[in-house]
Amino acid sequence: MPRPVQGRGGRQETEAARAFVHVLADSSDKLSSVCSILERNFAVAGERLDAQAKLSQVPFAVVIRADLRDVNNIAAIKKRAAKLAKAQKRIFLVEYSSHVSVSQAYALGATLVLPGTVDRIKLLAALTDPAAPAAASSSTRPQPDNAVETAATAIASMFTAVTLGEPLDVDGTKEAGRKIADRIGEHGLSEWLTTVRRHHEGTYQHCLLVTGVAIDFGLSLGVRRTDLERLYSAAMFHDIGKAQIPLAILDKPGRLDANERAMIETHPAAGYAFLKDREKISPEILDAVRHHHEYLDGSGYPDGLCGESINDIVRILTISDIFAALIEHRHYKPTMPRREAYNILCGMTGKLEKALVIAFKQVALTR
Ligand SMILES: [Fe+2]
Ligand SMILES: [Fe+2]
Known about the structure:
By secondary structure, the chain is of the alpha/beta class. Helices cover 53% and strands 8% of the residues. The protein has 18 helices and 5 strands.
């Protein structure tokens, strides 16, 4: 390796029309297994991570399958960082399905991480996903986005810190929230939703979407700068308790069973317990982390709070959280239109503050 571009039939005119995917792996076996999945649909070039990179063409996607616990693999990927950044999609197939490996992949620039054993259907779906932009010429290809990648990396690092019991970068996480606020102030919410859904999936995408929606909701309500900071900080941290839940449950396609649901519902209290003695974590963040699944009618969890005991920032965050969860992009199901998601919020009578749901309409539908 490296080996030349290959494809079914090998005819020049056919190759020209097929999107070019570059596969990197840390062993020949892994390389051929990934290439064999892709060769039917794409022009594929495979390369071992320990080889010298000699690609003449910029791929529309890079697929990397490697053990990210190995420092040599990490170094080899970092060495190729500038080249990898030019690909629209950077899909990491992470063998060890843990927050640590997944966050390592995001830190290395992944736009999507597929943990566990290689799933042919998932991989092909991720590459042919209509939510992602079509292969473009190098002059029009979008560059990696700073605010999105900074924020995704901050969220991934936060999950890793919890998992490993390491110090939490509170300032870095808030700073990432500020970048999102600047970005949305400049380009609006719709652009943020599109960019995030194109680059990320699952729990990380969710946190990025909630933060963006909460910021735009705050901006539309005309909250003060200090309240906006409270809001985006709370949003960045709100699901930190999910770090203790296996990704297989968090990102499971389809319905959760009763035990899985019960496990998910431990995350607000777990997040609160994790943050409560940390420096620089304000009471508003703690309140939001613990209570973002409470409803005004007392039917939420973990404390069954009612009405006045749920404060304004939490009410705003809860609406943003539900809306963001509904409009998440998952490769295995169609994305729910924003109007449909807003109608679901409107149907949650008694649970959410009516005046806020009405005020949320322009965020949900037009901004
Ligand atoms: Fe949550
Ligand atoms: Fe959430």
